[in-house]
Amino acid sequence: MTDPLPEYELFAIRYATREARRADHFIGGDPHDGPMPMDYFVWVAKGPERAFVIDCGFTAETAQKRKRTFLRDPIEALKLIGLDGATVQDVILTHLHYDHVGNFHRFPVARFHLQEPEIHYATGRYMQYPRLSHSFEVEDIVGVVRLNFAHRVTFHNGGAELAPGITLHPVGGHSMGLQFVRMHTRRGWVVVASDTTHFYENMMTGRPFTTAFHIGLMLEAYDTLRASAPTPQHIVPGHDPLVMKFYPPPSPELAGIVARLDVTPDDAELAKIKP
Questions:
Q1: Which candidate, 56, 44, 46, places its Cα nearest to that of 106?
Q2: Tens digits of residue pLDDT in 12-53
Q3: Is the pLDDT of residue 134 over 60?
Q4: Which of 23, 121, 122, 131 is the most buried (most CB within 10 A)?
Q5: 208-261: per-residue pLDDT in tens?
Q6: Could you give all domains of the chain from N- to C-terminal order, each with its CATH number?
Q7: Cβ neighbours for 216, distance < 8 A, ≥ 6 positions apart
Q8: Any alpha helices (H) in the chain, and if so which ranges?
Q9: Could you tell me where the beta strands, DSSP code E, fall in the chain?
């Protein structure tokens, strides 16, 4: 008889936002253009014996440089759910874009988990093209290379189980070495999609996001997401403000700051998104 899988508590921490329009988020624009803001998150899976931080956001300096509204320090915000970056043992990097890796230096003892094709992409020939290199901060990439020389990066080439109830799933499209994370929670398996789908609408309407390395692989990644989750309600997109609307805070004072993702969402609006 096998041991039951642990149930992870799962949180999204909203640390930044920006004003944007619908045309910014769909290749080919949108016939009904209007406001469509973008939120920025880090995620945390807390198990009975082990915690995993998923991505680590960007810094206040990068927010100013890229004209993003910086709401709070994402690493300090970990303390709101009882976690200290100084003692975190595992950080999963879904990819190396500036808004997912910018605070790597704030985790002094962590091991970082990354798909190996992503470091080749971020240091390889495609970075000569500004349309692709714009998504990266060069000092972040140099920092990850230094972490590797310090023996603190585990490179994965394909799917992996990091611990019972925590699995990695590589997909293409948005970046060469993108991965999403699946966690076992009290409501079953939940998928943190990160930028596999930026918004619910990208995945549910089959319209790719504008930052793309390979459009065909991005469309296939939407299929992989759906196949990896019990229902669309078990998929958490990477930048959608609806996440904070659908999911409750752990406590009233954290409303708009932290969302609890291991509970059933109040997502009646999801049915209104038509393919």
A1: 56
A2: 999 999 999 999 999 998 888 899 999 999 999 999 889 999
A3: yes
A4: 122
A5: 999 999 999 999 999 999 999 999 999 999 999 999 999 999 999 999 999 999
A6: 9-263 (3.60.15.10)
A7: 173
A8: 60-66, 74-77, 98-101, 116-123, 130-133, 138-149, 200-205, 215-228, 242-246
A9: 9-18, 38-46, 51-54, 69-70, 90-92, 111-115, 153-156, 160-163, 166-170, 179-185, 188-194, 235-237, 258-260
Q: In angstroms, what CA-CA distances link 12 with 7, 115, 132, 180?
A: 16, 22, 27, 14
Q: Look up residue 37 and give its two tokens.
A: 């803001």
| Percent of the chain scoring above 70 in pLDDT | 98
User: For the chain, how many helices (H) and strands (E)?
Assistant: 9, 13
The per-residue pLDDT for 275 is 63
Q: What are 43's strand-pairing partners? A: 12, 54
Residue 84 has pLDDT above 80, yes or no: yes
Phi, psi at 44, each rounded to 5° = -135, 130
Q: Is residue 237 within 8 Å of residue 203, measured between CB atoms?
A: yes
